[in-house]
Amino acid sequence: MSWFFDALTSSIGRKVLMALTGLFLILFLTVHLAGNLQLLAGDGGKSFNVYSHFMAHSAVIQLISKGNFFFILLHVVVAISLSIKNKKARPISYRVSGGSHNSTWASRSMTLLGILTFIFLLVHLRTFWYEFKFGAEVPTTTIDGVEMHNSFLVVQNAYASIFYSGFYVVAMVVLGFHLVHGFQSAFQSLGINHSKYSPAIKVIGKLYAIAVPGLFAVIPIIMYLKSLG
Questions:
Q1: Rounded Cα–Cα distance for residues 15 and 141 (Å)
Q2: CB 15 within 8 A of CB 81
Q3: Distance of alpha carbon 182 from alpha carbon 82, whole angstroms
Q4: Which CATH code is given to the segment(s) 2-92+101-227?
Q5: What are 116-138's pLDDT values in tens digits?
Q6: Could you tell me what percent of the chain has a pLDDT over 90?
Q7: Domain chopping of the chain, boundaries
Q8: Which of 70, 116, 136, 176 has the smallest set of CB atoms within 10 Å of its CB?
């Protein structure tokens, strides 16, 4: 098995790990967005509370959730490892002629964008996940005879703050820039790089990087505006 470990820890192996974990997280974002959009269902939070209750009590979902945490940490660790390796390979910074014309700002700032996204994730988990798991007083509601956490109320209260909603929207802009390069880079790292497919992957990646973070950002904006009465 040493050959397998050596392959995974090589530069190519780490790039493949980055690509696979990145694509998994992209899939997770899509599913998470579908659930979060129920916040806008206009039914007083019933749909979102039922969804949250199911997610919290399904053994399969909980297993996937733990796997998601693992993949996030793995993605971060591998990213840091690759960044350190790249810096060691170029201990003396140098200027590349026309560098800004040969690459996008997003591609040159992936480490910074990744760090900012990770900080947002920690704040987001502290605001919601930690509160639901360890909060002293989590509000409850009863739907169809089943008592459950009133997750909708917790989210509604958080998004009523212009500071948190503003922070969330800015974080989605950062995530969008991170995705716009990360999406196509993942396919390239997996060897899916062909004159036939690459242009389509690039377009799909840009559309995804705009649509998904954009829809995530719309949720706190609408809920904040509703909180104003």
A1: 46
A2: no
A3: 14
A4: 1.20.1300.10
A5: 999 999 999 989 888 877 776 78
A6: 45
A7: 2-92+101-227
A8: 136
